[in-house]
Amino acid sequence: MPDTNQKTLTILYTNDLHSHFGAMKRIASMVNELRLQHNGAVLLLDIGDHMDRAAPETEGTMGQANVDVLNLTGYDAITIGNNEGLTFTPEQLDQAYAGLACEIVCGNLLDARTGKPPEWMKRHAMLERAGFKVGLIGATAAYVEFYKLLGLTALDPLEEIARSVKELRSEVDLVIVMSHLGLSFDRQLAEQVPGIDLILGGHTHHLLEEPLRIGQTAIAAAGKFGRHLGQITVERDALTGLAKVVSGICLPAESGPEDYSVAEALEIHRHRAVERMARTVAVIEEELPVRYDQESPFGNLLAQAVRRFTGSDLSIVNSGQLLSGLPAGEISEGMLHERCPSPINPCRMNLPGKHILYSLEQSLIAEITDKAIYGFGFRGKQLGGICVDGMEILYDPNALPYHKIIEASIQGVPIVPEGVYSVGTLDMFTFGIGYECLKEGSSQEYLLPEFLRDLLRMELQTAGAVESCFYHRWRIRTES
User: Fold this and answer.
1) pLDDT higher than threshold 70 for residue 78
2) Confidence class of residue 314 from pLDDT cuts 50, 70 and 90?
3) Average pLDDT over residues 288-306
């Protein structure tokens, strides 16, 4: 029989914090207040993407700053998002999570070598809080090919969640799915898998100010970047004693008192991160500026780095990956991280010439290069123009849109629409973000775990690379 002495359980949750550490200080204070208010009858969960390597505190400590915040805030369980699972290797996560005091729950990732979850992860978990037995199920977006390259097997989340629900339902008062899968998937899950009381969602950064009800399942989500703290109230039915979700709200977290212990820990981690990332990786004699509206040396250096690393005939990248240029003198790891923070990987593909030529035309249209884009790892402010290596382009800036390219060639041989070319580019393009034709390549090969800033470091250390990035790839036709 259920313990009816405790009538109410408060569930607090965060999702998609993306290393917004300022928000975490405020949220920790709110959690402390709510624990006092509810006499400790509180369960605290995180739904993934707590870490983001665009933040220097995360990059410089390889996630240790995030783990300390999770511990100091007193989380009871977390699941992982794609920012944990895809931007850290399993070995790096093993080290980061070694000191984590709570459960990590994710049922659809396995170590490819053992066929079992990594040692730091559980398929599902059961916790007891204030007399409520709670079954926790976690799942993350299954980027199958990417996880395969990292030595992990990504399973179908719907099937794995359904299996865990079946195993847990009779053993607990409440079944909660921590879903880093997106709102459309959460709707599908509620419709197709009975026995789930509550889905706490993330990944698509959706904000549900009150729970969405589908059948007997409540769906909730608290937006992104720690702007809200999610709160769900669970009560026992007065007659049956069964637990049910009765209400939910997203509490604004943008201003108010901050937790001192979290703030102090973050300050220590920030200083340590700065020290660790101060290592000099290269020395350059000339400044490398970047432009988003025309060719620039730093953009060319990135294109060179991608082409060299992928071993392709040519490379296509966007200048928006670079937030500012490089000064002359000593270049540190921290400077490269600051200028190229996106956790984006290189990839290689075979791409028809017509898509190359169309993308080059797009790069000459200000409405496209000025466009703000979001997601798939991109942490820049605008798309920027196309930077290339291994290719020369002759164009007329005064011609009509999509008629400006006169010729694009590889070692003097014109690119033709029906030809197929080996292209080094960025993983985000394969998802159709930015220059959308670049997703049409075949034989896509993702190269993990290196990020673009790793390639920039290697390129800066390559003899002659800095000098060659000043050579022009884009040439304006001059009238004879």
Assistant:
1) yes
2) very high
3) 97
Q: Name the nearest CA neighbour of 340 among 277, 271, 434, 283.
A: 277
Q: What is the average pLDDT across 444-457? A: 95
Structural domain ending residue among the three candidates 214, 242, 273: 273
Task: Specify if 3 maps to a domain.
Answer: no
Q: Are residues 232 and 319 in the same domain?
A: no
Q: Which of 456, 426, 453, 454 is nearest to 441 (CA)?
A: 426
Single out the residue in 237, 256, 273 at which a domain terminates. 273
Q: 431: which DSSP letter?
A: G
**Rounded Cα–Cα distance for residues 426 and 322 (Å):** 13
* Helix or strand (DSSP H, E) at 316: strand 314-318
Split into its structural domains, the chain has a count of 2
Residues 247 and 340 in one domain: no
pLDDT at residue 237 greater than cutoff 90: no
Count CB neighbours of 413 within 10 A. Answer: 8
Scored b (16 or more CB within 10 A) or e, 296-332 reads bbbbbbbbbbbbbbbebbbbbbbbbbbeeebeeeebe
Contacts for 363 with CB less than 8 Å, ≥ 6 apart: 369, 385, 386, 435
Whole-model pTM over 0.85: yes
Specify the pLDDT at position 5.
Answer: 56
Domain presence at residue 265:
yes
Domain membership of residue 52 as a residue range: 8-273
| Nearest residue to 43 via CA among 165, 164, 126 | 126
Model pLDDT, residue 6: 66
Asked if residue 1 has pLDDT above 70, the reply is no
Which run of H or of E encompasses 332? Answer: strand 329-332
Verify that 268 and 312 share a domain, yes or no: no
Q: Which two tokens stand for residue 448?
A: 């993990």
